[in-house]
Amino acid sequence: xxxxxxxxxxxxxxxxxDDWPPPGVTMTPYxxxxxxxxxxxxxxGRLSIAKPAVAGKNSLHYDxxxxxxxxxxxxxxxxxxxxxxxxxxxxxxxRHDVLxxxxxxxxxxxxx
Length: 112
Fold this sequence. Notes:
By secondary structure, the chain is mainly beta.
């Protein structure tokens, strides 16, 4: 019996392997970076395969009295109050208590 069973989205297929990562996989590191800060959609947070020239840091202020809501994704136990799936996150990304990192559009399919 294979030791690993995993689902590939897009292809919508279950796959099996004896090791993880599966043979033939090429790992690609991705880096988070910003110069002025990645707070909100209006920050300069970047997701890239190019390693940043300078290591930096980002921070945010978390207020438990004002939690960040969820738009889609995997949801549990909401009684239908939140719909699962992928949704436009811009209404959340305008908040300054979230970090936003954006990439250039992908030129080819990427399996994560």
